[in-house]
Amino acid sequence: MKASIPKSWAPVVEPEFKKEYFKELTSFVTKEYATQTCYPAENEIYAALDWCSFKDIKVVILGQDPYHGPNQANGLCFSVKDGIKHPPSLLNIFKEIETDVAIPYPESGNLERWAKQGVLLLNATLTVRAHEAGSHQKKGWETFTDVLIKKISEEKEGIVFLLWGGYAKKKSKLIDTKKHHILTSGHPSPLSANRGYWFGNKHFSKTNTILKNNNSKEIEW
């Protein structure tokens, strides 16, 4: 695995590199990328950490695993590369932002602009085999990303965690609710959104209200 951890995250995650589960994970991912088409590109596996340094985190959005179609995944959960058609979940995210904070629907689905402002866009599983959703789950990534969530909870204060859908909500047990803010709702996928579990959650305005009350700069969604 050629991907490298950015410096700001090194003290947080380097202890994991020596653990047996991470060695097995590295071996698995290396073999997968050598023999299969996998996403995101190897140099974008840790893009969520590249774009949002540990010291700058204000908001954490948790996804499950990367998009598995060609040219979609860019290492940030729910995000796609510039010029790529917006997947249904991302489309619903943008629709909610339109009505919640009156920002016009954007042309690009690339969420690097959020990450630069301190939004950590973290998938629980950081890689996937092409056209096989969930194919790299339960190989060690979840153990690794749970450590990141715990470390953020332990070492930071006042972070807004956005947990969308049942899978993400389970991560609330890793977060100290006395120090941080957790907003939950249904997942933005059509199945959940069309049943009334997503639209109207106002998570984007609520997040900015929390940040403002913490004397922190609001996110330009």
Task: Write a structural description.
- This protein has a single domain, classed as 3-Layer(aba) Sandwich (Uracil-DNA Glycosylase, subunit E).
- Helices cover 37% and strands 11% of the residues.
- The chain contains 9 helices and 6 strands.
- It has helices spanning 10-17, 20-35, 47-51, 88-101, 112-115, 141-155, 165-169, 190-193, 203-213, and strands at 38-39, 59-63, 119-123, 128-129, 160-164, 181-185.
- The strands form 2 sheets. It has a 4-stranded parallel sheet with strand order 3-2-5-6. It has a two-stranded antiparallel sheet with strand order 1-4.
- The model has no long low-confidence stretch (mean pLDDT 96).
- Keywords: Cytoplasm, DNA damage, DNA repair, Hydrolase.
- One of its GO terms (biological process) is base-excision repair, AP site formation via deaminated base removal.
- The active site is at residue 65.
- One of its GO terms (cellular component) is cytoplasm.
Major sheet summary line: 4 strands, parallel
> Helix amount, in percent?
25-40%
Termini, distance in Å? 33 Å
The shape is globular
Q: How many extended strands?
A: 6
- The fourth-level CATH homologous superfamily is Uracil-DNA glycosylase-like domain
Uncertain segments are: none
Strand content: 5-15%
Task: State the secondary-structure class.
Answer: alpha/beta
Rg over CA atoms:
17 Å
Mean pLDDT: 96
Task: Give the CATH class.
Answer: Alpha Beta
Question: What labels describe this entry?
Answer:
single chain; 221 residues; alpha/beta; Uracil-DNA Glycosylase, subunit E; four-stranded parallel β-sheet; two-stranded antiparallel sheet; 9 helices; 37% helix; 11% strand; globular; EC 3.2.2.27; DNA damage; hydrolase
